[in-house]
Amino acid sequence: xxxxxxxxxxxxxxxxxxxxxxxxxxxxxxxxxxxxxxxxxxxxxxxxxxxxxxxxxxxxxxxxxxxxxxxxxxxxxxxxxxxxxxxxxxxxxxxxxxxxxxxxxxxxxxxxxxxxxxxxxxxxxxxxxxxxxxxxxxxxxxxxxxxxxxxxxxxxxxxxxxxxxxxxxxxxxxxxxxxxxxxxxxxxxxxxxxxxxxxxxxxxxxxxxxxxxxxxxxxxxxxxxxxxxxxxxxxxxxxxxxxxxxxxxxxxxxxxxxxxxxxxxxxxxxxxxxxxxxxxxxxxxxxxxxxxxxxxxxxxxxxxxxxxxxxxxxxxxxxxxxxxxxxxxxxxxxxxxxxxxxxxxxxxxxxxxxxxxxxxxxxxxxxxxxxxxxxxxxxxxxxxxxxxxxxxxxxxxxxxxxxxxxxxxxxxxxxxxxxxxxxxxxxxxxxxxxxxxxxxxxxxxxxxxxxxxxxxxxxxxxxxxxxxxxxxxxxxxxxxxxxxxxxxxxxxxxxxxxxxxxxxxxxxxxxxxxxxxxxxxxxxxxxxxxxxxxxxxxxxxxxxxxxxxxxxxxxxxxxxxxxxxxxxxxxxxxxxxxxxxxxxxxxxxxxxxxxxxxxxxxxxxxxxxxxxxxxxxxxxxxxxxxxxxxxxxxxxxxxxxxxxxxxxxxxxxxxxxxxxxxxxxxxxxxxxxxxxxxxxxxx
Length: 683
Hints:
The chain is of the alpha+beta class. α3 (91-107) packs parallel to α9 (323-361) and α4 crosses α5. The longest helix is centred in the middle third of the chain and has 39 residues, at 323-361. It is globular, with a radius of gyration of 32 Å.
């Protein structure tokens, strides 16, 4: 479901740029076009838009399988046009579904006879499976209360605060009170003792999780079962347990076979599991298994005849594709218990590689357990300069990694974690590479200035708290300082006096400029470029983009042995003419000009760097203002910071295209219009 939003003028159409050989006109974005377009054009338009999605294998936020064998893919494509609900028309598909139910039920130690069929159903995922299980518990509880002549209008369910959102949906959609056991710091799953304390005569079931979404930890289902047995004995109630094994259901049977969490425990009446997670099937398949027929009230099962022969159904939806069911059967017979065991052990080993790599940095606290779903959850021990887990998550996107950062559930919401899900397709090489990239991010964060903060009065008290400045506040500060600087420049030119230009003391957003510093320090770069990039959201913004041996530097900060201060208003400085310049100096850069650094001089003269002004023909590319590689150098004329030329008295120093940096009207007008084309969330 897509929630509607107001459309801007730019939202009204889609330009078929790369498909222009077929389509010259734009396509409406939110309504069906009047005429048809060639199939090639439709494919190319959609294909090009989808390129902006991340690579599924690097999406470490998701538990969902992103890779299956070609043979399984082939079966999926061969059956993609089969509707599973047409059981009479596709009897073999129905038979494969029933085989999957029985295989999974026996994997979970359902008490069945040799020839007895299991009670279960395939769903579109664990969310639907949980809805069905919850409905069965609710109806069975209601029936029991009716027989006893007791009220049956206030059912409740007990879970941990760490449950997946589908449990909240079930409670809200089907009018069941959700009673959550809060977690606490250091213990991020449901406490069985506290859960049993919350059980009352209206509790339809207690839900335990085999693999928490937050840190992959298994809840102690056996302890919950034992405590609940004792309470049922004392009260005469019959409160059951449902196990949400969406993630752990295809893990525990293979690498923790002695762990008692399933139908070996008498109070466990139903279990759900996601086939599209560690069942190793693409998204769109889940399973719910009941202990016996008695645990699924007959009145919830529908018997239909209008598709041919009479058939029974218990699902929330009707039509459903067959391909994922067939893919699940393929994986079960293709891998067998041996194959699943090998894959799950490999996932666990790769999780340990990642965990140990993070521990070696000395910067993270590991919040996940070794035994459980192969998930590594970790948080920063020390948030230097206000750079927290959210910043780490954002910076990792530059390398292609999607690593979510989020607060722990109620009771420990002050704890922020990063989480990496280790799936079957995540190799040891990728784990090692991820550690390397995380380490790189940490080094970059260490070199960044603290986040911009301001003092504010809280609740009318005199106590001051730190608060990050808003984008508008930052823009206004940049504009004010720039205006003051330009006014000062005019006064200096008027008086014709020498002046050393002070830096603009503005903290800029995080930027990856350390790379260039490292290259220069190691003398491994033959050439570098320093450019001025402007952000409409944050005002002046510097960034660095590396292309082979070239790159863009950003920021005003100390970088290893190179102390760089960026100044504004002068297009050019030749540090060779500055006495004592050796890796420490000033770069005078105007807002529209770029400066090229010839670092070959570094290897020959450790006391100087040579700068040449480049022309102002910049283009916008991917949101950054970049210098075209084919632009010719400027006149090569050099200016010194202590010297003001007479002929520069009334003209701008940016040199090119007659642009006047002293005219604030245009600059402020651009700020008022929304600034420049750069979104803060896209760096």
